[in-house]
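Bench notes, afternoon.
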Amino acid sequence: MRRVALTLRPASRQGPVLAAVSDGEGHFLFENVEPATYRLSAERTGFLRQDYGAPPSSSAGARLEVSAGQQFTDLVLKLTPQGVITGKVLDQEGEPAANVEVAVLRQTGFGGSRRLTRVDAVVTNDLGEFRIPELKPGSYLLAADGRDHSPEASPGHSATDRTEEAYVPSFYPGTTDPEAAVPVQVGAGQEVSGNNIQLQKTRVYGLRGKLIGASARSFQVTLLPRERARALMGFARWTALVTLDGKFEFRGVQTGSYHLLAVRTQGRQQIVGRLPVEVTGSSVDGLQLVAGDGFAVTGLVRVEGEAKTAPSGAALMLLPSEGPSLIPLAASVKEDGAFRIEEVLRDRYRLNFHWLPEGTYVKSVRMGGLETPDKALDLTQAVTDTAVEITLGARAGGIQGQVQVDGKPAAGSLVTLVPEPVRPNQPFLYKKAFADLNGLFQMTGLAPGDYKLYAWEEDAEVAPDLDPDFVRPFESAGVKVRVVEGGRESVELKLLRAQDAQR
């Protein structure tokens, strides 16, 4: 293939990025490459981006370890033609619906562990038509936002006490229930046409309340569905303005479970209030959403047994134990190990960490001089700034191994590490790594404890996160491993497939 754009990027993300273009015979050349570890990728219009050493259309490939004087020759990348989905959006009278947003959600995983990931979104033209390109081979769901977005009908304007029927987000071919949606299968280079989405009407309701303890000029109210599939559509987030006397209202709300959030809009955006809301068979009135005064979480990160504290560049995040994290609560660790997170809402939080020093792991989290349960923070009763002390163990464990499929190395496969038992309040225990050209992988910075390892033939979108339901069908296929402080374990993994799920 000619005129393919190739990119050679340092795996560390530090150093120059090199570029090349293939000639008429598909050949390419990178010269004067500094010794380092790299990833190589190729892109061309009409084809999917491809990383060297990865399965077709996967999201990450193998690393190339380049040493001084070394030459890599005869590297081959095979590009996959893009898939395309086309269709129309029609109203209940069968007329084309123009200017309607259509979202495509990718289905990944197997059976009961199936997941949805928002891939892209387009808007229908004047004939109600849509075209979604650059799709990987796989199974997709389509959803169309049929709501009236005019100012008179938008959430936050003129909600009434009576219920009404209105267009709502609808899944292909014509349902409001994501479980009843029909998947669209797309093959490599295939254009799947005739996917007409029939918009659906259903009973919708008003939702009204008052924002307590906040100035209307500096706050807005956001409504988010708790149901994952609806939230992933991307157009399920509604925002209402707050009147001068603190009142807010939404119109056109479907039945379901929601998070109601108060968001400060002046200065640094911040969530300052959260309220769970259930909408059943009638409008909801009289809600009181309290906007609390934020406080600061300060602290110190230090490495056990060392006089020096954690180097600058490490970062930590506060994630709500329940509900969405629309606006990150994060801080960088300074050279003296100190950190400070401003405007924290009284709530329960999980901690997560990035870029910790090499060979360290999170060993202890203390607040008020006491070890916190499950290394999480309960700040529901905090009245002033709160100090947290985080200790890093200096002798983290590691795992290395190989992934095989049908007796051969599974290059580019994804390996995930899940604590045993699962610990959703400690997201920093969950790790992932990609196998190289020989199916070899390694993980470092691991806390001592029991884990299970899984190797997936899908790409990173199927990685189990903190949801135990995702990995449950494969528990019997996971490989148990015990990590000890300072130890390095070796394992062999086999690539998981649909038939490995428990029935």
